[in-house]
């Protein structure tokens, strides 16, 4: 049995969010295909994730043995480390990810829990795990000239790789705010891809 951590980062509700239309379809399909797996949903807005509080950064660098699973900051890093698979759902905002998702990542990246420093440099402790990033973009960033502006999926791939997660896929519906595009078709195609990918995730 695998433990799946479903991380949601959109200020819109499930009914309003085009991102969540795709990610919820993925999760529902995954549940049907993998009924024995545990899915933990973490909606960052409902959770009230905030920036790291001033004066608390030292706690992320010096966690005490046995401390953390009920700690208001460290509990997120432990929860992340205990998961086997990750589904991250977020819109593309201002050429990157929503700030709340970056704030959450700052909670998750804790030396000794999700990565560690060694004589050879930092080493990720979340090896052998898989992740999928589900995102939506108003513009189109797949061409070589526009791809330089895409810093959302790139960042997630980099930071997850830093934590040791090398198996990462992306489902993206883009061009959703371009006048004349068939938005329903674009989202629908992404949902089809999501359901197909859920079979072997």
Search tags:
201 residues; alpha/beta; Rossmann fold; 7 helices; EC 1.7.1.17; oxidoreductase activity, acting on NAD(P)H, quinone or similar compound as acceptor
Would you mind describing this structure in some detail?
By secondary structure, the chain is of the alpha/beta class. The chain has a single domain (3-198), classed as Flavodoxin domain (Rossmann fold, 3-Layer(aba) Sandwich). It has helices at residues 18-33, 44-47, 57-61, 74-82, 99-108, 153-162, 183-198, and strands spanning 3-8, 38-43, 85-91, 115-118, 121-124, 130-136, 167-173. The strands form 2 sheets. It has a 5-stranded parallel β-sheet with strand order 2-1-3-6-7, sandwiched between helices. A two-stranded antiparallel sheet has the order 4-5. Strand 6, helix 6 (153-162) and strand 7 form a beta-alpha-beta unit. Helix 1 (18-33) runs parallel beside helix 7 (183-198). It is globular, with a radius of gyration of 17 Å. The relative contact order is 0.18. The model has no long low-confidence stretch (mean pLDDT 93).
């Amino acid at each position: 049995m695998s433990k799946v951590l479903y991380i949601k980062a959109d200020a819109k509700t499930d009914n309003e969010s085009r991102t969540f239309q795709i990610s919820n379809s993925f999760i529902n399909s995954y549940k049907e295909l993998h009924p024995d797996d545990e899915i933990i949903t973490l909606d960052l807005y409902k959770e009230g994730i905030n920036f790291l509080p001033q004066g608390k950064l030292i706690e992320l660098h010096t966690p005490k043995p046995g401390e953390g699973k009920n700690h208001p900051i460290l509990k997120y890093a432990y929860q992340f480390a205990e998961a086997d698979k990750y589904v991250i759902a977020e819109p593309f905002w201002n050429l990157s990810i929503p700030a709340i998702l970056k704030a959450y990542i700052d909670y998750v990246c804790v030396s000794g829990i999700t990565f560690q420093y060694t004589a050879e440099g930092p080493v990720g402790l979340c090896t052998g795990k898989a992740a999928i990033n589900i995102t939506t973009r108003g513009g189109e960033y797949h061409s070589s000239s526009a791809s330089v502006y895409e810093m959302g999926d790139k960042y997630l791939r980099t930071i997850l790789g830093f934590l040791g997660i090398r198996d990462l896929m992306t489902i993206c519906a883009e061009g959703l705010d371009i006048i004349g595009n068939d938005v329903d078709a674009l989202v629908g195609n992404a949902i089809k891809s999501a359901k197909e990918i859920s079979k072997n995730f």
